[in-house]
Amino acid sequence: MRIDLYSKVVLTLILLVLAVIALRPVIQPQAVVAQGNLTGVQFTYNGGGFLAIDTRTGDVWDYYAMENPGDGTVKGHYKITKLGQPLTH
């Protein structure tokens, strides 16, 4: 009889610990952060090409349209130093 009670208590504890492990990602999810070469870079279409804006540094690259595959030459490179002010080269 004692062994039966002991087994039930141990199995119940195992069940509770497994439930906590399984539910942790739902209750306390981890933040996801991209870590690549283009982290913090945003792209936008700009008529005949596109802009790449680095939100960490304020750098803006203006690219020509890619009419030929792999032909994405830089039209200009600018720097945002302060919002509302002209871009600098």
Written overview of the protein:
The protein is built from one helix and four strands; from the N terminus they run H-E-E-E-E. With 89 residues, it is α+β, with helices and mostly antiparallel strands. It has a four-stranded antiparallel β-sheet, with no helix packed on it. It starts with a helix and ends in a 10-residue tail after the last strand. The mean pLDDT is 83.
Quote the average pLDDT: 83
Distance between the termini: 84 Å
Radius of gyration: 28 Å
Helix content: 25-40%
Write the topology of this structure.
Blueprint: H1 2-27, E1 41-45, E2 49-54, E3 59-64, E4 74-79
Antiparallel strand pairs: 1-2, 2-3, 3-4
Kindly list the characteristics that best describe this protein.
alpha+beta; four-stranded antiparallel beta sheet; 1 helix; about 25% strand
In short:
With 89 residues, this protein is an alpha+beta fold. The chain contains one helix and four strands; from the N terminus they run αββββ.
